[in-house]
C-alpha cells in the first residue's frame, strides 16, 4: 500500500510504500489500540487475511500484524458492533458468500463472532454500515453481486444481527453508499450496478420493510 502525507496547501509528500499481504483489495482506518493515533487495516484477498498497521505520531507505522479474515476478503469497514467503545471490523468474503464480524478483545486480538450470509452464490462485493432504524445500534447493508440484491442486517448491539431483509437492485451490484437524499432524516442507499449501466436509489423504511426504488440510467460517453 502507499501512504501520502498531506501538506497544509493541499499537496502531498511522495508516497511511502508499505508491504501488505497478497493482493490487497480494500483499506480502512481507525484507532484500534485507543492511543488517539490513526491505524490502518488492509484486506488481503490473495492470502485470506487482513493486515493491521498501528500508527505513530510521525506518520510512520509499526510492522503489520496479520489476522485471519475468511475466504477472499473483498471489502472491509470498522465500527463498534457490541457497544464496548472499541473498534471492530466487518469484512465481506466474496468466494464463500459470507460477511464476517470480527470483534476486538484483549489488546489487539480479533475474534470472529458472527457470520452473515445473504444466501448461496450471493458474492458480496461491497457494504455500508450505519444506524438505519434509529436504535443506536450499528447495522450492515451488503451489496450481493451474485444475486442482484442488497441485504439489510439490523444489529442487536451484542455483535449479533437479525435475519436479513432483501431488496432487488439492477444486475450485479458492486458498490454501495449511504446518505440522506430526500432530507427526511433517514438514511437512504445508492447502489452501482455493473451490467445494467444504471444506479439504484433506495429510500428505506426499516419498520415496516417498505421502500421506493429508483433506477438511474447512465449514458455511455
Automatic annotation (TrEMBL):
Keyword set, alphabetical order: Signal
Transmembrane parts of this sequence: none
Signal peptide range: none
InterPro entries attached to this UniProt entry: FG-GAP, Integrin_alpha_N
This protein's name: VCBS repeat-containing protein
Organism: Rotaria socialis
